[in-house]
Amino acid sequence: MAKLILSRLVRLILTLLAVSALTFFLLKQLPGSEIDALLPPNAPRDPETIALLEERFNLNDPLPVQYFKWLGNAVQGDLGTSAFGGLSVSGQIKDRLPITAELAFVSVFFALIIAVPLGIIGAYRPKSKTDSIISGINQVFISSPNYLVAAVLLYVLSVRYGLLPTVGWTRLGDSITGNLKSVIMPALSLALLEIAIYTRLIKTDMSATLQEDFILSARAKGLPNRYVLFRHALRPSSLSLITVLGLNLGALLGGTVVIEFIFGLPGIGGKLLQSVFSRDVVMVQGLAVFISMSYVVINTLIDIAYLVVDPRTRSRGV
Questions:
Q1: Rounded to an integer, what is the distance from CA 146 to the centroid of its chain?
Q2: Which of 102, 114, 171, 199 has its Cα between 20 and 30 A from that of 248?
């Protein structure tokens, strides 16, 4: 266990270094000048003004020097301050992370509570009418882009029946009911695709598990089918689900840009997109490193979860 954690920690550090360096140098290669992005359209661009801005934001230093200055501050916990409005990157993460994280976790929760029973039913009754219906629903879900699902939900639940707010976000500390109303549609928009993926994974893995000798032995002992399915078959059939769950959860922390834009949510994804368009290098780099760190940490926890769910993996090393 200690060796696993240590190796993942080393990978975490290397990943963050690679992501921060690539983000920094690729943004520097975008067309146009950072000075043009900083100045208003009609502001004078005389040499004195340009030299003053370059000095203020260290733009006159060589690119490697600029990067290592940022890296030195980041190691001390300072991800920088945006040149656009003087916003602290850490402050923006603190304000926006609860929104994006809640959206990601609620969508995964919706997906799991629906997909796990459907996957078990499909594995237990293969090629039945119920299995055909579940497969048909999955096909619809997996072929529906989340922005299309969001548009349909907005029309039905908000415009047509007025059950939920169209856009905006109510924080959990302000109103529990308002928060639930503001998170349901965005979370469902993300969850439908996940439901289809998780259902297929559970069905496929459990179908194979149900043919194992220990399952046949449990059935021969006269144990109830429900007990066999949930007590003996579900855990060893969950490894693929746990893997994909970790990948999706990490991706959701930085990949909810479209949904946040459609529903007007002030999350991390929307801020990242806005910063890319405005060429806010400091904000983009800080958010990218934070998202990468979250992604790697989540997947490290997933690796550790393997050891809990399936003790057989403990003998396979790191």
A1: 14
A2: 171
